Amino acid sequence: MFENTEQVIARIGETDQLYLTDNTPELALERASLRLQLVNISHSRQEQIHFLQEGIVLLEQARFEYEEMPIRLFVDLSLQLARAYMLYFKITQEQRFALITQQILKPMTVHEHGDIYLLLAYACAVRQENALTRYWLTKYSRTAEFDPVALKQHSAFDAFREDAWFVQLIQERLH
Questions:
Q1: First CA to last CA across the chain, in angstroms?
Q2: What does pTM read for this prediction?
């Protein structure tokens, strides 16, 4: 095992112990994030799916288990949940995970957060909803989180690389 993997596993053990005595939405977010790190480290599809499922359960529970939490924390939990589902899509290529991502994030668009728009665009792109992809990317381009270099390198948007609107979107922020 890599030293990094060992550190992630050790922290999972620590946070799982903390869960037994003082569970909070912040702790749930950390516990889920650690599991998603293991998904990215693992080369075994079975392990990846296992850790994804654990992370998704933690995030789903945290979003609904706590009656009161700061809206920023709820947005962070929702974003991490959407990332988990898109990671699930990446591993399985099952479009239902992109649809679930859309269902999680569409109500969150009132927060005008760039990562919400980018994940919605990603989900729409893999579902071949081209007009919606363009719509969400345009909204994303107007946020502080917009990263034209990362967007240009994101493989989900390969089909749009030569489109005038996509080129213009990238060019406007690079200059």
A1: 44
A2: 0.91
